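Internal QA ticket QA-208
Title: Verify multi-chain structure generation after dependency bump
Assignee: T.L.

Test input:
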Amino acid sequence: MSTATKHRTSGSVRVESQGSRGPRDALMSRTTAMVIMGVFTLYFLMPLWWLLVASSKNKGDVFTTNPLWFADFQMWSNIGDLFSYDHGIYLKWLVNSAIYAGLGGAVATLLAAMAGYALAKYKFRGREVMFNVILGGVLVPATALALPLFLLFSKVELTNTFWAVFLPSIVSPFGVYLTKIFAASSVPDEVLEAARLDGSGEIRTFFTVSIRLMSPALVTVFLFQFVTIWNNFFLPLIMLRDAKLFPVTFGLYSWNTQLNQIPELRSLVLVGALVSIVPLIVTFLSLQRFWRNGLGAGAVK
Amino acid sequence: MTAVQPSSAPTTIPPRVISPRKRRGTPHRRALLALLAPFGTLFFFLYLLPIFYAFWQSLLVIERDGTFGKAREVFGGFQQYELVMQNDAFWQSMGRMGLFGIIQVPVMLGLALVFALLLDSSLLKGRRFFRLAFFVPYAVPGVIAAIMWGNLLSPNVSPFKSVTSQVDLLGADLVLWSIANVVTWVFVGYNMLIIYSSLLSIPTELHEAARLDGAGQFRMAWSVKIPLVRPAIIMTAVFSIIGTFQLLAEPQVFQSFSTAVTSTFTPNMTVYATASVPNTNLAAAFSVILAVITFVLSFTFLKFTQRKGSE
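Actual output:
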């Protein structure tokens, strides 16, 4: 992390000269660069702008007025309809997603940190094998696990329950990988020895000292896991029948599949999509620094 | 990144002397167990066991005593795999994803690389804004992104009626590329950020040296920067290849907008459709084959690029 920041700072004072090329060439490349970035800014932001505008229109206006500009502004009444439809099921979905992703992400991070720390800081037989097996788990696509998980969960009658989505979400092999690497370099053995001399137990040392030293990695693991759970589609698709258990993205998907039978759901799908992504976008942008650092950590090796 | 740098802390403390009356086995055994057991148990039951269970299920066949007899599962060897081999729909979906990957992954990573290089060059003003704007789509879940683009491409609501009324972007010929567009839209910024953070860790001295040699922006990007961020590009490519063969949410959503997306459009949709029949044994065999092929492809790609890199 610190390396990146260091270079970033020195990078920003880089001399702006263009080597041996003339000022006109420089102007040309500057303009081209800005045009490219400008065009793609439109590409990336236009769909979101469209969603914002469409969410503010009543059912008829979505089809008849300019799709990229506001007509009769009905955003608040649309949001009211959204939260009152089907006895407020949408709010239930939002809460579900917050629990699956928020709580699930937090538990996953803690479990991964404990395991990663143990693998980094203790020597024991079978350590390498264990780490390699977990590393193999990183390469197993989550969707490949969805079907066998469903078969196993149906054996113990846990399908169509909260646990069917929650339990698989709290296992993050990638988190173990990242925390192991991070613990190895950021929790010095000397600190652990000192704690031992002070008479602190191993577990207590972990929770009071080591976990703090590992906190940058923990934020990254939490963010990754949060997004993975929030975006998970196959697991709810295969596990859940009861709409009360749906996470919000899956709930919106289920509405979207009913558009032919219930056309008025269209405006609810759009405003529901908008309401569900606003908190995500805000969180993402405010935590962007952690993203960059974490992504970099994964990319070096 | 410090995260993977070898610890710079000098090991002044001599290796711990093993006391003669030491407990047999590992020191701090109980603490170690307490730290490892929670993850270990869950990993076993929710990762390892399902993998073996899927393989076991794929070896079973349903047998009935007569047409209306009771069904029971019996060991059938590789019978399900013979059915997989004969299943045209599944192999078509694999081929479709292969085509998708050959086009979409290079386009997406090419764009991500260009954006990252531009962000890292001195050509741009407002870097922070561009970085944020390009990364925002990654905050949008695949399902939502597909719902948005599905609407944007449907002739009745699209803002680009002049285009969508002429060209059927949701028809059988083009729907695959409309889905590719959704995936690209979501992931370009994310991949850009990975490559960009790798660019930031290039020592400034290298820039200075190249500039003193009279290298312009393009020369510098081509012969200094790109070779150095190669590992980051390879990593994004591997994850993209894996992601391509796992495609599910976006095409599943597009079924509401396009009749051209069949229930066996992608391998995972085939798995789901087969499992809902229900024919779980065949679905398990599909899953196993899909996982193996994904693994082989990403592994081969890694080996291939590493060998080329070391030449």
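Spot checks passed. DSSP finds 13 helices and two strands in chain B.
Status: verified.
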